[in-house]
Amino acid sequence: DLEGWTPGTSGAPGGPDWGRAMRLRQKGRGVVMLDGTGNPGRPNAWIFRTIQLPATAHTLRFEVAGHDQPGADARFVVRIVDGGASTTLLDTVIAGSGVPGTYNYVFRDLDITAFAGRTVTIYFEQDDNGFNGQHPGGHEQIYLDNISILR
To answer: Is the CB of residue 68 less than 8 Å from the CB of residue 138?
Structure first.
């Protein structure tokens, strides 16, 4: 869930660039949902956390899924900020399953060895960008679970 993480969104509630980051239960599991609407190319829902990485840290691991509706997808970005410098670890499109009620979670492992032993801020960001002909807001949610640092 969101314990220890700070959620953020762009825009004003109900406005054209509004987003939300919230915890919810999905098929018996507690997950974080990032959801937003807005202009393509910038995040409109995110979570972040500042953490002192262990000196032996090597992998940022998490599970991620897209929405269950046909044609739903969203841009998903994972960034790490170290001393004011931002590094993008992942910038990809997460496609929805296309099967109502089915969320295809996959583990993703990102190399963080360059940041081991440092205090960093980790961001998970969603961009509701209208891929696959969807209009922004067309079920383009990102779902996150089981975020961990491997060492």
So the answer is: no
pLDDT, mean of residues 134-146: 72
Max distance between CA atoms of the chain, in angstroms, equals 44
The pLDDT of 16-35, averaged and rounded, is 71
Contact 61, 108 (CB under 8 A): yes
Do residues 90 and 141 lie in contact, with contact meaning Cβ atoms separated by under 8 Å?
Answer: no
Residue 17 has pLDDT above 70, yes or no: no
- pLDDT tens string 60-90: 999 999 888 776 778 899 999 999 899 999 9
Task: Give strand pairing partners of 132.
Answer: none
**Token reading at 55:** 């000196």
What is the secondary structure of the chain as a DSSP string?
--TT-EEEE-S-TTSTT-EEEEEEEETTEEEEEEEE-S-TTS-SEEEEEEEE--TT--EEEEEEEE-SSTT-EEEEEEEEEETTEEEEEEEEEEEP-SSTT----EEEEEE-GGGTTSEEEEEEEEE---GGGPPTTSS--EEEEEEEEE-
Bridge partners of 30, per DSSP, are 25
